[in-house]
Amino acid sequence: MNDLIDIGANLSGGSFRHDLPRVIERAQSAGVVQMLVTGTSLEHSETALMLSEQWPGTLFSTAGVHPHHANEWTDKVATAIHDLSEHVAVRAIGECGLDYNRNFSEPADQRRCFEAQLELAADTGLPVFLHQRDAHADFLRIISRWRDKLSGGVAHCFTGTVDEAKACLDIDLHIGITGWLCDERRGEALQQAVKYIPLERLMIETDAPYLMPRNLPDDLSKLLADKRRNEPLVLPHVCAELARLKQLDVSEVAQQTTQLAREFFAIQA
Questions:
Q1: DSSP letter assigned to residue 173
Q2: What residue spans of the chain are helical by DSSP H?
Q3: What residues are paired with 235 via a beta bridge?
């Protein structure tokens, strides 16, 4: 299989604090040569950048505030995220968007925080790393208003329907696919959607430590340090499942998703 890029891994969290060097080594041994560390708050965005500077050329990062943390958005946070975005290792603004599933932050705060980060992305020229859960209508309304000012956007960890995928494609968003694809219980809508989404609009990710593929083969599972913690090393399995559902050769899917990730995030091999 060709080299792979994990466009979304939460490596700044506590679950990786004790063994991150080995996590990265396992990923690279599995062919996952580069990873983007997701910024979900100011603290995690700062840590993501720090990790990217420790592993230059292997780790890159995003800088942003997840909708769960939208009530933390202030002028001071906005300035700090802007300052982070000027570092060469930061390749996107986000994770930003809307999440009405649990409403850890009030929807009005989420919308305010989302628009502020879209404005930041428009000002900096960086693409946006997008999150949406149970908020499709508001998400689409807001992102559509900003889309022509943005250099690009990827719907990270997309789990939606064919119609939601079409709506994202219609405004020229790319789509990130995770191990949700491998869930026979919850992933049916996504399995149908990826058959429709053109390969040249798809990238792959693990969202580690979350979204462990439910059908992970034993030979890959035994490489994990913790069977309950997802790692970037499982990305080849996500790639293989995507290839199976699209009835394409896995090497073609690997080559295309990696090429797109390099172009989208301006990552050199």
A1: -
A2: 20-29, 42-54, 75-85, 107-124, 136-146, 162-170, 188-196, 218-221, 235-246, 250-265
A3: none
Q: What are the tokens at 100?
A: 């009405």
182: left (phi over 0), alpha (psi -120 to 50) or beta: alpha
* pLDDT per residue as tens digits for the range 116-158: 999 999 999 999 999 999 999 999 999 999 999 999 999 999 9
d(CA 85, CA 39): 11
Band (pLDDT 50/70/90 cuts) for residue 2 is: confident
Cis peptide before 95 (omega within 30 of 0): yes
The alpha-helical segments, DSSP class H, found in 171-224 are: 188-196, 218-221
Length of the chain: 269
Backbone CA torsion sign across 63, 10, 56, 174: negative
Q: Residue 125: left (phi > 0), alpha (psi -120 to 50), or beta?
A: left
Q: What angle do CA 103, 63, 134 make, to 5 degrees?
A: 25
Sign, Cα dihedral of 226, 231, 236, 238: positive
